Amino acid sequence: MRIFSAFISSSASFGHRSLSRLSLRLLSFSRIAIPMDAAEESLRRALAEKQSAIETQGNAVRSLKAAKAAKPEIDAAIDVLNGIKLEKSSIEKQLEAAVSGNAGDGVLSREAFRQAVVNTLERRLFYIPSFKIYRGVAGLYDYGPPGCAVKANVLAFWRQHFVLEENMLEVDCPCVTPEVVLKASGHVDKFTDLMVKDEKTGTCYRADHLLKDFCNEKLEKDLSISAEKAAELKHVLAVLDDLSVEELGGKIKEYGITAPDSKNPLSDPYPFNLMFQTSIGPSGLSPGYMRPETAQGIFVNFKDLYYYNGNKLPFAAAQIGQAFRNEISPRQGLLRVREFTLAEIEHFVDPEDKSHPKYSDVVNLEFLMFPREEQMNGQSAKRIPLGEAVSRGIVNNQTLGYFIGRVYLFLTCLGIDKERLRFRQHLANEMAHYAADCWDAEIECSYGWIECVGIADRSAYDLRAHSEKSGVPLVAQEKFSQPKEVEKLVIAPVKKELGLAFKGNQKNVVEALEAMNEKEALDMKAALESKGEVEFYVCTLGKNVSIKKNMVAISKEKKKEHQRVFTPSVIEPSFGIGRIIYCLFEHSFYTRPSKAGDEQLNVFGFPPVVAPIKCTVFPLVQNQQYEEVAKVISKSLTAAGISHKIDITGTSIGKRYARTDELGVPFAITVDSTSSVTIRERDSKDQIRVSVEEAASIVNAVSDGQMTWEDVWSNFPHHSSASTE
Amino acid sequence: MRIFSAFISSSASFGHRSLSRLSLRLLSFSRIAIPMDAAEESLRRALAEKQSAIETQGNAVRSLKAAKAAKPEIDAAIDVLNGIKLEKSSIEKQLEAAVSGNAGDGVLSREAFRQAVVNTLERRLFYIPSFKIYRGVAGLYDYGPPGCAVKANVLAFWRQHFVLEENMLEVDCPCVTPEVVLKASGHVDKFTDLMVKDEKTGTCYRADHLLKDFCNEKLEKDLSISAEKAAELKHVLAVLDDLSVEELGGKIKEYGITAPDSKNPLSDPYPFNLMFQTSIGPSGLSPGYMRPETAQGIFVNFKDLYYYNGNKLPFAAAQIGQAFRNEISPRQGLLRVREFTLAEIEHFVDPEDKSHPKYSDVVNLEFLMFPREEQMNGQSAKRIPLGEAVSRGIVNNQTLGYFIGRVYLFLTCLGIDKERLRFRQHLANEMAHYAADCWDAEIECSYGWIECVGIADRSAYDLRAHSEKSGVPLVAQEKFSQPKEVEKLVIAPVKKELGLAFKGNQKNVVEALEAMNEKEALDMKAALESKGEVEFYVCTLGKNVSIKKNMVAISKEKKKEHQRVFTPSVIEPSFGIGRIIYCLFEHSFYTRPSKAGDEQLNVFGFPPVVAPIKCTVFPLVQNQQYEEVAKVISKSLTAAGISHKIDITGTSIGKRYARTDELGVPFAITVDSTSSVTIRERDSKDQIRVSVEEAASIVNAVSDGQMTWEDVWSNFPHHSSASTE
C-alpha cells in the first residue's frame, strides 16, 4: 500500500516537467521569470491612451468636416490631432528602446561584437564547422589547431585544479551505453524535448523555441499590443519550461504560430528523445545509446570505487569525455551542439554529514550569487561572502558551498571575467523532486547569461535508481566504534490465523499489515489490547477486514547494531567544457588600434595557462646567425614542453606581433643579437632584455605560473619597443 | 573508356579483399603464413605409417587366430603389434609437443602469466568491465583510476613526443559522422566482416574466426590427421584473410563446422558492416555513424589546415579521440574492443619529395624489422639499421622511415621491451592497391604478436576520394620560381564529324577517345597519318568503330606553367592506444618474493613518465608530527603537479610498499623524522635520505625526466632499508 502510493507520487512528479530536470542537468539554457518593467508597462498604457485619443480626435475632425464647420475650427482640431500623433510617436520611440532592454543599441553592438569574435575564431581556425566540404552538419563543430590546444589546456588545468587537488578517482568509460543503464537513469523515458512538424514538408522544430520566438518578436516589434497582452506574453516566456504538452500545443494554436520557413500549419507537439540511438552487436537485439552525460559511468562503478577508496566516505570520482545530444534544431553556434565534452565530478558523501574538510579554504570568497529568493522578488544577483551563504542556509551545505567556491576559482583562473560570472540557484520548480539544492555557474556573453557549470546536490537518487534496476546494492557502511542499541518496530503477522480467517486474501492482509507505519502499528496495538479486535482497511482488497488479537504481534524490540548501512548522497559539479571555452573566447577578446592608427587589431588576452601557443620566436631580420639562435631557443622550449612557433619568414615584426596577438600568444622572443634577445608581453606590449640562455626558462616560468610578468618586469632590464612596434 | 575500366578494376580490387584493407588500418590482427615445420611433417608421416602398420599387424594376428595357428606364433605376432603400438604412442607424444609450438608448456605458462596480470589489473581497478552491475557488454571496458591515469600519461607523452616536437596541427572532430563522409572513404560499402548465423538460435559469429578455430583445434588435438591434411589446414590459416565469401562458405561446409555453442547448422557467410549506425536530427532522414577512425576528420579539413600552415608542405595534422567498431563477437579482452582511443597522424607531403628534414635524427637507430621478403622466405625478423633499410629501398622513403624511428622511440620510452617489438612490413596481398608501403609496429604479448601502430604511406587516395565526392579540390600548389615549359598531349575529338558518323553513340566515342593514355593516343596519331583510318575499341559500346583522320586531332603542345597543382601523399602513423597500454601492462609486470619469502609480490615496473601515481608519502609510525611533515610534502607535490598518495593508516611499511608496488608507484617518501625523510625506488628498493625541504623537488625531477634515479643515487646519502622492508 505504502509502496504503491509512493510509486504514484513519484510517477506524477515526473511529467513533461521532468524533461527540464534532465535537460537542465545537461546544461540547457535557464529561463528566469523577469517581472515586466514598470516603465515599459506605463509606456504601453500611455501608447494605448494616445491611440484612443487619436481615434476620438479623428472622429471629431471628421464630424466637423461633415457638419461643414468653419475652416479655422477644423484646422484647430487637426492641429490637436497632429499634436497627439507626435506625442504617440515619441512614446513609441521610448517603448521601442525599453523593450529592447538596456539593449537598444546594446542588442546591435552585442551582435556586432559576437560577429567580430566569431569571424576571428573561424578565420584563425579556433573552430571549423564539421564536415564543411560536405556543407556541414548543424550542431557539430571541430576544434582547429589553436582551439584544440585551448581545450587541452583547459582540461589539463581542470585535472590539476580538481582531480589532483582533491585526490579524485578519475575513470574513463565508453560512450556506447546499453539501454538498461539509461532506462534506470530515466533518460530512455524522460530525456525528451517537445517537437512539432511542418505538416506538409515534415521539417521539425522545437515547440518551445517557436513559442519563445513568437513572444519575443511580438514584444519587440509589435508596439500596438496592449499592456495586458504584453504581460501575458512575458508570463508565457517565464513559464515556458513548465508548460505541459497540451498547454504548449494550445498556445501554439491560440497564437496561430506556423512553420517559420514555409508558413505551413504545424502538428501538435510530441516528445522526441534526444539520445542518439544505435544497436550493439550484430543481432539487432541489443539497443544502445550514445551517452547523454558521463555521470552514469561513475554511478554504475560506485561499488568498486568505494572499495578502491578503502570503503571510506567521502570521496569523489571524476570523468572527462564526450557526451551526445541529438538536438531537434541546434541554434546558438558553439553553445548548443550535438556532441560536446563534459567534465563531471560525483562527490559521494554521508547524507548525515555534509561538512567538508577544506571548506575553510573557500569560506572568505565573495562573488555574485543569485539566490532563489532574489529571483522570485525580481531583484538582481548580489555579492555575498560564501561563508555567509552557507551559514545562513542559502546554500544547503558545506560541501556544496566548497564546490561552488572551487568552481569560482577555476573559472576566474582560466580568464572568465568575475563581473560577468554569477551563481544562480535553481527555483523550486526547476529542481528535480529528489534534489536538495542546485546552483548554476552562469557566464554572461553576447547570448545572455549562459549556464556553464551545474553544481547539484542530487541526494541518493542516482545510486538508488541503479541499485533497484541492477539488484546490486550501491551502499556505504559506517561501522560503529561500539555497537549501538536501537529500538525497532516489529510487526509479525500470524499467518496461520490469518489464513484460517481470510483464506485466499491472506497474502493481501499480511502485506497491508507489514506496510503500516510506526504510528498506525502502535495505534493498532493499543486498540487490540483494549478491544481485542479492530477494523482495518486493506487497500488492495478495497475493503475493511476485522483483525483479532491473535492474528498479529506488534512489539518494539531493542537490537544491537554494529554498523549503519546507507545510500550516500552525491554532489555533482558538471562542466560543459565547450561552453566555458566559448565564453572565455568572448571575455578574452579585445581590439586596439594599430601603430599607424589606421586599423583595429584583434587580440585574445588569454592567460598563459590557457593560451594555445605560449611563445613565438622571431629573428628580427632574416639572417643565418639569428636563425641559428632562434632554433637553439626553440629546442630548449620544446624540451621544456612549451608549445611555441618559430617564424623565419621576412614579414615585418609589427605584422608578426599582430598575427600572434590574434592567436592569443602571450610572449614573443625576438632575436636581435647573438648574445641577448627581447621578450615581449602581449597585453602591455612591454619588453625586457635577457640573455639567450635565460630566454626559454623565463618563458617557461611565466607560462606555467611559477612567476608573473610583473615579477619578470621588475627583475630584468627593460627594452624600448619604439623601433619595432 | 579509361575511366570506365579504372572503375571496374578499382571495384574488382575492392572485393571481400578490401575488408582486410580497411580493417588492417584499424589495427586488426595480422596473420602471417608460417611454413609447416619439417619435424612436425615427418612426425605426422611416421604416425600415419605406424597406424597403417598397426592395421596390417592386427589383420595378421586375426588371420593367425582364424587359421587356429599355434599359440606361440599368435603371441609373437601380438608382441610385434604391441611393439608398434608403443612406438606409435611415443610418436604421438612428440607430435603433441611439436604442434603446440615451442609452446608445449609455453602455451600454459603464457596463459598463466596473462591470468596473473589480468587478475592484478582487475583487482587494482586498472580496468573494469563496463556496466558490470548489469552483467556488462562484451567488448566494452572502463579504465578505473590507475588505468585512467596511465592512459592520460601515455596521451600526454604522445602529444609531447609527436605534436609538440613536430609542430603538428592537432584537431578535435566529432565522433558522430554523416554518411556522405564515410561513403567517400569507403567505410559504408566496405568496412565489413563476414558473419554466419546459427540457423536456429540466430546467434552471430565471425566466419573467419570459426574456420580459424576449427583449423587450430584440429591441428593441435587431432593427431590422426595426415601430413597432407595438416598442410592443407595450415594453408587455410595462412590465406584466411584472402578467402572470398564463397571460398569461406565452402570451407565451412566442407569441414562441417557448426555453431560452437549449440552445434546447430550455420548460414552462409554474409558481410556485416562494423560501424555503429545512428540517425542525425529528428527527421530520420540523415543517417550517420560513429566514426571507425579519426583520420577522416583530418582529411576533410585538409584545405583549411594547408591554408593555416601558410600553404606550405610538408605538414602533419594529428587527432586523439574515440573510435568505434561494432565487433561481431569480441574476444581477446582489452585487445579487441568495440570502442577505443586512437591517436592518428596524417603527414602530408609532396609525392615527388618524400625526404624528411629530421631524418638524420633516426638514421642510426637499429631494431627488429621484418621485411616482406623475410616473411615470404619463412625467415624471422632481424635487426637492421634504419638508415640501411631506407637506403636499400626496403622502407619506401625517408619520411616513412623517420616515423618508423620515432614510433620505436615512443614505444620504448613508454616501457615496451625492445626485444619484443618488431616492425613488420605488409605483404603485397595485405596492402591496399593505392598504398606505397606499410609497416606495423607489432608488440609481443601473451596473445602473440599484436599490431599496435600502423605506419602507412597511403599515397593520394584519401584526399582524392573526398575531392571527388565533395567537389572541393583538396590539392597543393608548388609555385615555380620561373615559369616552366611543359609538353602536353592534347586530344581534340571533332564532334561534328563524330556526330555525323556515329549519331547517338557519339558521346561514347568521344569519351573513349579522350580517355586514351599517351601511348595509345600517339599510336593512333601515327596510324591515322599513315593509313588515314584506324579500328578503335569502344569499351562502353562493346565493339570496334572506325576512326578517320578528320574525326580527331592529336597533338603535343608546349605550354608555360607557373605552378604545379597536385594531390599530396599522406603518411599515416595510427596508434591503438588501448593496445599499447595493454602490452605495456604485460611488459611491466613481474613478481618477486616477499621479505619473508612466503609469497610472491606483484610489481608493475612502469617508468615514471607512465606511472599512474608518481609517489606515495608514508609516516613511518602513526604520530602527529610525522603526519604534519607528510602533509607539508604532499602540498608541495600537489603544487608541482605530481600525482601522489598520502597514507596515514597504521599498516606496516612493508605492506604499504607491496600495495603501491602493485600499482607501479616508482617512488615512496617515508617520514621517519621531522627534519629528513627517505625516498625509496620501487625496482631496486634502494633508499636515499634527503631533507624534508628537498623531497618534493627531487621526486619532481626524477618523475618528469630531468634526472634519473642513478643521478639521485650518486648524489645523496644512502639509507639502509633492512629495518623496514
TrEMBL record, chains A, B:
Return the InterPro entries for the record.
aa-tRNA-synt_IIb, aa-tRNA-synth_II, aa-tRNA-synth_II/BPL/LPL, Anticodon-bd, Anticodon-bd_dom_sf, Gly-tRNA_synthase/POLG2, GlyRS-like_core, tRNA-synt_gly
Cellular localization per UniProt: Cytoplasm
CDD domains named among the record's database cross-references: GlyRS-like_core (cd00774), GlyRS_anticodon (cd00858)
Q: Name one GO biological process term.
A: mitochondrial glycyl-tRNA aminoacylation
Q: Which GO terms describe its cellular component?
A: mitochondrion
> What GO MF terms are annotated?
ATP binding; glycine-tRNA ligase activity; transferase activity
Q: Which reaction does it catalyse?
A: tRNA(Gly) + glycine + ATP = glycyl-tRNA(Gly) + AMP + diphosphate
Q: Where is the Aminoacyl-transfer RNA synthetases class-II family profile domain?
A: 115-593
Under Enzyme Commission nomenclature, its number is 6.1.1.14
Annotated WHEP-TRS domain ranges read 46-102
Q: Name one Pfam family in it.
A: HGTP_anticodon
What broad class describes the main subcellular location of this protein?
cytoplasm
Keyword line: Aminoacyl-tRNA synthetase, ATP-binding, Cytoplasm, Ligase, Nucleotide-binding, Protein biosynthesis, Transferase
Subunit comment: Homodimer.
Family membership noted in the UniProt record: Belongs to the class-II aminoacyl-tRNA synthetase family.
NCBIfam families for the chain = glyS_dimeric (TIGR00389), PRK04173.1 (NF003211)
Q: What is this protein called?
A: glycine--tRNA ligase
What organism does the record attribute this protein to? Cephalotus follicularis (Albany pitcher plant)
